[in-house]
Amino acid sequence: MHLASLPPDPERAQAGWEANLALKFARRGARTSLVERHHLGPLKVQRPFYPEGDVCHLYLLHPPGGLVGGDRLRIEVEVEEGASAMLTTPGAAKLYRSLGPEAEQHQILRVRDGALEWLPQESILFPGANALLHTQIDLSGTARFIGWEIQCLGLPANGERFETGRADLQLSVDRDGMPLLRDRLRIQRAGDLDGPSGLRGMPVVGTLIATGADDRTLDLAREAATSDDHTLLGITRIDDLLVARALGQATDRVRAKLTAVWASIRPSLLGRPATLPRIWAT
After folding, report:
1. What pTM, to 2 d.p., does this model score?
2. Considering only Cβ atoms within 10 Å of each terminal Cβ, which end of the chain, N or C, has fewer?
3. Which positions ≥6 away from 211 have C-beta within 8 Å?
4. What is the pLDDT of residue 237?
5. Which UniProt keywords apply (predicted)?
């Protein structure tokens, strides 16, 4: 597997870290194995776990613990035919205040007639951050995917809004080269956090997507979805793509809502009961 990297930029190299991680999963006998792993810079993985017997559970590690202006991270994941993997992180990703340069994180997830669950913990954008977060999901054939993105804009527990800084949050899903979803949220000024057609003043935004959905899947997800005064949740289906969106005041509440949706649809979409990553309990 080729470890791709973003084009070198001498000025950016002086401004921050560049780190790349490329992973490839394939079916080997009775279970999925991590058959290729390449990394450059501070991006690594723990050893695989198999709490379900055949599904490969893997935890992504970024030892610095956060990104500053000028840092660039690139994560590439490839899942081959018949393979099943679940990826998550041990804690939240942090994007710190920038003096000007943009911090970038690019995630390219390719699933070839296999199954991938992408369940990272939230990204926290500190006030004053300048961040580009881009996730691209490329599916082929009968590939199945369930995953989410959760972003916290500011530090709500400290009463700090994301009133300074910039955020460009991008999510795309393709199957066999055809677009299924294009999603983009740009925050350029404090007013972008408010308004009935925006974030309604809520600092946490989450999106869950799942492929292979039908009316029954939609019913299961809606039965599991509950809204309250602190968290809003809406679910829809576009062809076979289930999309759940959440707005909330706290990351743990948003993550709990999306986890409930994931747990409700996993048995029907992947044929497996919900098995939480062990790292979440530590």
Report:
1. 0.92
2. C
3. 139, 143, 144, 145, 146, 173, 175, 180, 240, 241, 242, 269
4. 96
5. Chaperone, Cytoplasm, Nickel insertion
